[in-house]
Structures are given as C-alpha cells and as structure tokens.
Amino acid sequence: MLAVTAAVAAALAVGVAERANSLDDERAATLAELRTVEVAADEAAQHGDYLRGAIGGAEDDVADRAAVLAVRPAFVAEIAALSAALGRAEGRVDTTADRASALSAQQTVLAERADPVVVTNATATVHALTAKIDGDVSTWLAAQQARRAPGGPAWSSSGPDGYARVRAALDRVGGSGVGLYESASCAGGTAPACANSNGYIKYRADIANWGADRLNWAMAHELAHIYQFQVWGALTSSAAYQSMFGGDPEFLANCMAVVRGFPGSVGCDGDQQAWASGIWVGAVR
Length: 285
Prior knowledge:
By secondary structure, the protein is mainly alpha-helical. The N and C termini lie far apart (128 Å). 72% of the residues lie in helices and 4% in strands. It has nine helices and three strands, in the order ααααβββααααα. A hairpin with a 3-residue loop joins strand 2 and strand 3.
C-alpha cells in the first residue's frame, strides 16, 4: 500500500514538474510575443510620425505652390504688355538690354515654386521695363517730329491767340508732341486741316473760330492720320482694313477719333471701333 502511494506521489511530482515547465515555456512565449508586439507598435508609431511629417510637408508645398500660381497671371499680363511695347519700339529704339532683363525675370518666375514675392517682384520689373520702353519711343517720336517740321512761323492770319486755341485742342486729344502750323495749302485750301506723313499737322486759319467740340474732333481726326502713317504699309495691305473701312483712311480716322472720345458727324460700329483702337497703339490686326 505504501509502495502504491509512493508511486502515485512520484507520478504527481513528475506531473507537477512537467506542468511547471510547460507554464514557464508559455510564459516565455507570451513575453516574446509581447516584445514582438511592442516592437511592432514602436515601428508603427514611428511610421505614423513619418507619414504625418510627410503629409504636413506636402500640404505646405501645395500651399506654397498655390500662392505662387495665384500671382502668375499678373506676370503673364505684364509680359503681354511688354511684348506690345517691344513691337512699338521696333526700328525706333534699342531694346537689347530691356529684352535681356525681361528674359531674366521670366526665367526667375519659371523656376520659382515656393515664394510668391519673387513673382510679384518680377512682375514689377517687367511693368517698369514696359513704361521705360514706351517713354523711349515717345522721346524718339518727338525728336523725329521736331526734325521734320517745316520752316517758317507757326501762324500768320490766325494770330497767336488763334494758334493757341488750335494748339490746345490738339494737345487735348493726345497730340502734345505733334508739330502744328497754319497753312492754306491743305487740298488747295479746300480742306480745313491736314496731316503730313512727316509727322505734323497743318490747319486753315478760320478753324481757330470753330466751336470746341468741332475743333477737338478735327484735331483728333488729323492726329489719327499721323498714327496711320506710322503703320501705313501694314495698314494698306490689311484685308480687315479693306473689308471694314473700304480702304478709306478718312473713314478710319473718323472712327479713331470716336475711340478717343471725339466723335464727328460720321460714326462707326463697335467692331470697327475695336479694330480702329489698335492703330492708336501701332497694331494692325
């Protein structure tokens, strides 16, 4: 009986030991699994931090890019204005340095991705270039007109007061740099005023007594001819000029005067006015 009891006790001891060993193994496995989970959690947290940083950086980049894009249209508009000014300067003034400055500004804008101030500054630079070129062209035109003016006094029978009145009308319509002289030679004396392709205007003495509106219109009309002469080759070969104005420079001059705000007895429609406005800036469409 004691032997059986001892045998049972031994068996129980073995079972307890095996169970203890099994529990130790399970505990070790559990700890290992917990460490694995902890490492995975740390890696996930690090990855999350990275993603948050990457997303934040991307959002900042997008915001910066949007700010740059928002100010680009103004730069593009200034480039278009500069292009028109360069066209007006062609054959008149040297724009080599201005073109180089504009190209540099354009390359700066194309390369910029983050700072809108860079684009805004470049826009201001191009605007200043346009103003400079237009000023240079105006100076050139004034010099040409001064060199081409006919000799003799500016007035005769109209007197200084009559001349001053006609001069003021011409200045009022935009012809302050254009030469003005009294003459009875316009169409043999039948025309009250006429423009010369050398860049000056002649007037008959009696128009100094015209009403203000009529006198302003007459000067705007003759000034329009001065601008026509500056683009004469392109104008006379323009199909639009032929179809819209019948190739008539007088009709076109009337329409150009309307554009300036000095209508006469002959009007023109909106499409004709839009086309005629281009001649004032040297553009033949």
